[in-house]
């Protein structure tokens, strides 16, 4: 099997449709080569080689050559005052271009970037629209979502990434899938055995380690006896508390009698046992106190809390309540509470031809992208010169 080429490289940078931090770095150091001795053919080839990895890098060259069209869609703004005054009958009769229009000063119009619309056909593809709607972090991920049947178009499953959207089509994705694609990943977790081996490596003084191990073992034995004494001296403990004390005692004895446990792990277990045992004793002492002693601090704290809330409300800065829509859930494949990916702000934009609702993870393809005076609706990081040379490259192949 042939080795897969590196999609994002720092040695040979290519701009991709991806939120990857290395792609952002390549974008920051993007330089358009323009050697003075390059021929026109070389300039067109270089422009095509630079722009194609970003625009439809997942599409084969032959397929894109068939999709290419020399007609660039565009619109021109009309003077609404003139349209309201005239119905066009004078122009159709050969009149109406007199001096009254020539006397009015015309505001200078910006040039229409027609050449920025070279790759406008690729914006109709379903995988590109999913990426433009910010439902995926890269064009490859959006293509994977579509190929696996996770994207619906007008309520029907559409497993073809190259499906060409029509104006008015709606596509949607599951919200959990979008949150996984655009949210931060879970931190990598190591197993207890790996952490134990990593901590056991810097072991230099054997005698000191043995002395430390004996001290920890003695403390664990003493803690186990204290737990047994506490359980026997309080026969009225609830069954869950007794089960918790029994489990803690078993853990202490198992860590004491197992010779394969390292001292650092025993220290961690000892600290955990002490914390749990202290919390149980604190709860027991609090429950055995009189109602007046227990309710007084709670009432005082509640009164202070109520005064703080009222003051912030009067100042217009009321404390927001915790959002139940973004809870901490360990079963989710992404980090909770949900947070956007790093370096996402550089790519956080939605084109004009899409209407996106992030709450339900659905979007509507309103119309085909067009060119306006001073604006090309096809997002591209390349200047007009590169797009013009790429257009001329594909123009000679039609």
Automatic annotation (TrEMBL):
One of its GO terms (cellular component) is mitochondrial small ribosomal subunit. Residues 97-109 have a biased composition (Basic and acidic residues). Signal peptide: none annotated. Residues 124-187 form the RNA-binding S4 domain. Transmembrane segments: none annotated. SMART domains: S4. InterPro entries: Ribosomal_uS4 (IPR022801), Ribosomal_uS4_CS (IPR018079), S4_RNA-bd (IPR002942), S4_RNA-bd_sf (IPR036986). Keywords: Ribonucleoprotein, Ribosomal protein, RNA-binding, rRNA-binding. GO terms for biological process: ribosomal small subunit biogenesis. Residues 86-112 are annotated as: Disordered. Pfam families: S4. The keyword Nucleotide-binding does not apply. The keyword Ribonucleoprotein applies. GO terms for molecular function: rRNA binding; structural constituent of ribosome. Belongs to the universal ribosomal protein uS4 family. This is Alpha-L RNA-binding motif-containing protein. It comes from Eremomyces bilateralis CBS 781.70.
């Amino acid at each position: 099997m042939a080795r897969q080429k590196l999609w994002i490289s720092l040695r040979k940078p290519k701009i991709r449709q991806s939120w990857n931090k290395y792609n952002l770095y390549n974008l920051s150091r993007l330089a358009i080569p323009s050697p003075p001795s390059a021929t026109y053919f070389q300039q067109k080839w270089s422009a095509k080689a630079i722009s194609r990895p970003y625009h439809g890098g997942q599409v084969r060259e032959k397929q894109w050559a068939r999709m290419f069209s020399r007609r660039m869609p565009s619109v021109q703004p009309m003077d609404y005052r003139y349209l309201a005054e005239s119905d066009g009958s004078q122009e159709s009769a050969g009149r109406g271009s007199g001096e009254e229009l020539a006397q009015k000063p015309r505001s200078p119009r910006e040039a229409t970037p027609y050449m920025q619309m070279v790759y406008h056909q690729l914006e109709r593809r379903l995988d590109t629209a999913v990426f433009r709607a910010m439902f995926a972090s890269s064009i490859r991920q959006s293509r994977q979502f579509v190929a696996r049947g996770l994207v619906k178009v007008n309520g029907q499953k559409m497993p073809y990434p190259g499906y060409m959207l029509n104006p008015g089509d709606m596509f949607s994705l599951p919200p959990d899938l979008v949150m996984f694609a655009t949210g931060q990943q879970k931190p990598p977790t190591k197993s207890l055995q790996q952490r134990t081996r990593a901590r056991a490596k810097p072991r230099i003084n054997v005698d000191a380690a043995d002395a430390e191990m004996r001290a920890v073992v003695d403390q664990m034995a003493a803690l186990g006896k204290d737990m047994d004494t506490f359980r026997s001296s309080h026969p009225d403990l609830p069954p869950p508390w007794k089960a918790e004390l029994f489990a803690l005692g078993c853990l202490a004895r198992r860590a004491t009698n197992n010779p394969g446990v390292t001292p650092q792990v025993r220290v961690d277990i000892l600290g955990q046992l002490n914390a749990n045992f202290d919390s149980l004793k604190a709860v027991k002492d609090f429950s055995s106190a009189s109602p007046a002693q227990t309710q007084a601090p709670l009432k005082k704290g509640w009164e202070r809390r109520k005064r703080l809330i009222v003051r912030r409300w009067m100042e217009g800065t009321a404390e927001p309540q915790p959002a139940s829509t973004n809870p901490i859930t360990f079963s989710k494949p992404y980090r909770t509470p949900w947070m956007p990916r790093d370096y996402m702000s550089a790519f956080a934009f939605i084109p004009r031809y899409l209407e996106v609702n992030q709450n339900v993870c659905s979007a509507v393809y309103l119309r085909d992208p067009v060119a306006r005076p001073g604006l090309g609706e096809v997002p591209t990081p390349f200047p007009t010169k590169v797009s013009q040379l790429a257009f001329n490259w594909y123009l000679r192949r039609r």
